[in-house]
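Escalation from tier 1.

The customer reports that the assembly of two entities below gives different structure tokens on two consecutive runs. Tier 1 could not reproduce it. I'm attaching the input and our single run for tier 2 to review.
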Amino acid sequence: MTAMLNVKDLRAYYGQVQALHGLSFSLNEGSLTTLLGANGAGKTTTLRAICNMVRSTGAIEFEGAPLSSKSTENIVRLGIAHVPQGRGTFTTMTVEENLQLGAISRTDKAGIVSDIERMYEHFPVLKERYTQQAGTLSGGEQQMLAVARALMLRPRLMLLDEPSFGLAPLVVRDLFKILGKINREEKVTILVVEQNAQLALELADQAYVIETGRIVMSGNAKDIANNEDVRKSYLGY
Amino acid sequence: MELFVNQILAGISTGAIYACMALAVVMIYQAIDHLNFAQGEMAMFSTFISWQLMQWGVPYWWAFLLTIAISFAGGILIERLLFKPLAKAPVLTNVAGFIALFAIVNSVAGLIWDFTIKQYPTPFGSSPFLGSQLISTHQAGMIGVTLLMLVGLYLFFQFTRIGLAMRAAAALPESARLVGINTSWMIALGWGMASAIGAVAGILIAPVVFLEPNMMGGVLVYGFAAAVLGGLTSPLGAVVGGFLMGVFENLAGTYIPAVGNELKLPIALALIIIVLVFKPAGLFGRAIVKRV
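Tier 1 run:
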């Protein structure tokens, strides 16, 4: 397997404050990887650095091409969909407009129309509400919409920032099932940042653990789940 | 009764111009969260360009279209050169930028075309509209052109992909970038469109107020009042606010003896203050439905 995304010695800064201290990791094509860590460990910053939304140094390569000199919108146009923390829903627009915005960088009209239909199959609840203002959806529905919006890009890589945040456990299970399906059936490589370590490790095949801006552990998700330190710190048993 | 109807119709026709100016103000406010104090001067300059073109023998409607195109490009140019570098600057820096732009455009216009008052033609004529004494053909033309432009803008924002992208960039810039929208160019496009809308307003009002570098001063204040009344976040509100402002101004001038013609402008200013105190979001201001 070849590495689709390669991150080397990533350091990120908010003003004078350094948030990442030389982070290195890679994602294999077709993998579903999770990045675990406590509050403030640097998970969100890592995702933001990949999309050049925070000042950073180091090397980030996507399919062999460096990303660091590109603007956020051009990185997205390479096929990297980013579902940000808080979902980034266009709350004043309709559900369908949100989906169309996901595909705004594409030019194949027929493909967009059929993809919107496909999203309604994945997420029937969105179909019921397609003319509704997106801000009126529940948290779970908005997260589904955010994932659907990201898929409208037909991404090669999808970055998800704490998709489980604020959702009921049952809804989280549904959502993770769908993510697994997308990864298997649509061959989208996925990197999901999570605090909910147990569910994330069940879903993922690879895992990294991040602490205060450094990767402290990496490997197969099952091995990580069985690691005693991880169990104590993140799984609570 | 006839006086009343007459005043309302006249109010609607000047209101059309206020609506255009308010719309231009709202477009830029949506994009960069600042009021463009130089909007009126930009419109005045555009009007002078159309006048100059006609002096050179270009027919009216060609001059009209050319001026809109030039104003569109000019608006983009101003944004790229002056306001893009100020994008992250504090509010007051931006305000200073707008005031500088106001002064520069005003004096350059005076330098090129001097400050004497010029006649400006109307393609609609000024005979009574449909034989009625209430409204002239030029006033009817003003209303017609404004409404056409509004419908065009509505269709653009509602049904085109670039309109959708512009709305997204104004509503949530970060999310817009994350779906691949170049938000910086969307802002420039907003400036271009605002400048073109202002040009239409200037060209339509010039036969009424006559052409000179200070012609838009009062109009812009009414445009601001209309935008605040309708809600600075709502293009529809700006338009409704513009028409209301025009009617209100005329009725107050006619029926409140103390107001007359001289105190019409303070009425607009008073309205701005009243709206900001009692209903800061304006009539159509953003009322987002949120589920808690």
